[in-house]
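Before surveying the methods themselves, it helps to consider a single example record, giving the amino acid sequence and backbone structure tokens:
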Amino acid sequence: MQKQVASSNATSVLAPVIMFFILFGTWQFAAVGFDIPRWILPNPVSIIETMFVSFGEFAPHIGISIVTIVCGFLVAVPIGILLAALITNFKMIDKTLSPFVIFLVITPLITLVPLLMIWFGFGIEVKMLAVVIQSFPIVMMNSATGFNNVENIRLELMKSLCASRWQTFTMAILPSALPNVFTGIKLASIFATIAAVTSELIGGNIGIGSQIIKYSQYMQTEKAFACIFFTAIIGTTFYGLINLVERKIVRWKI
């Protein structure tokens, strides 16, 4: 059994690594072999070299993007869980809030950010707000799914013990729904990264997204790709950290 688990873990690590080298090897071969100009499509080796050589230039903007993502995310997650708890316990709140949440989900963020900037300015706070708007609905919907699908036997047990609504929620509903809650949180980490970079692309001159636009306009394609790679690293790391926390907390699922 342990050998099977170890083999599965090794495969889950090696498979994406092998695919990574295949994709980047093909990209490197095509860019160099067909002599594609670097301002059109730089090869991966030159991009990675640029990431290290010009890191001091990128670092302040990476830091700002990380702060935007993390702060917005830390606000969005409790809001999403709280709203999920409310709409699953009070039908009137569900009927009142659901249409607005659906509106936020289906409305592209790129259409809302310009309005937010008109109303609140171009500071980092607006980008954090964009992260919150983009992230909390996915936490809310996944958490609500978990809260609504708790086994009846657990709820009946809490009733037989004369537990209050709060005790039932904290001791039965929330623990049972944790896999769904963490699914929403992990998805929210992806949406938070997208929202932060998108809002930086649209307005402002700070953050990794704004640098993608700047370098693209000046045909510094290697640096633009370097910023894209940094964005991918930020998002992947953030997702991985949350996945690690889930493995520590939701042990019965793993």
Summary: The chain has ten helices and no strands. The chain has a mean pLDDT of 86. Residues 2 and 8 are 10 Å apart (CA to CA).
